[in-house]
Amino acid sequence: MNQKIIIAIDGYSSSGKSTLAKAISKKLKYKYIDSGAMYRSVALFAIRKKIFDSDLWNTRNFISILKEIRLKFKWNKKYNQTDIFLNEENIQSKIRSEKVAAKVSLIAQIPELRDKLTTMQRNIGKNKGIVIDGRDVGNCVFPKSELKIFMKGSIEIRSYRRYQDLKKRGEEVSYEEVKKNIIHRDIMDTSRNVSPLKKSIDSIEIDNTFLSIDEQLNLIFQLIKNNHIII
Fold it and tell me: What is the pLDDT of residues 90-106, one digit of tens each?
């Protein structure tokens, strides 16, 4: 009898976590949880509330409005994807801008927010059968995941992927701007006091600098087979 598992994929910004997680979930017919989209949604909410416009911005100002945030994932049949909703508004196309990306690492440091989103993620995954990607899903959110992957890639290839993605969305950005932002996010993600980005001892590291998505998928399913994981 097949048993559903949890596959946790952590890694650096623009390392291809979401692309791989979506491909795995599609092949296994598992739920896909984009934890990064949840943090981006909160960052968008904070931007709209002009939380960052004051020099006096601090976590206390932000914590007071957390109760106003309601997030939900819904399947989009038209585009064959999972969309995220903020207070009933589909914001899937609005959370990938550089403006939002620049604020994500700031709000991700807030313990109260991480607690709120971690609880939501665990509730979604309580019956297993999920693929989740993020920064701390293997270490903190689902530490007992049956398969943990840690993604990395060169700063140049990650910056180029992000740059190409933003250009396709019509954003006017330079490669150097994007690279600078990713380097900054790497520093913020790995150095924060609460749930920093780090490879857990039982994670399998994948450097996909020179790997296609098909090669990555083949590697994942080989790992599942070699570790005798029943799915």
Answer: 999 999 888 898 888 88
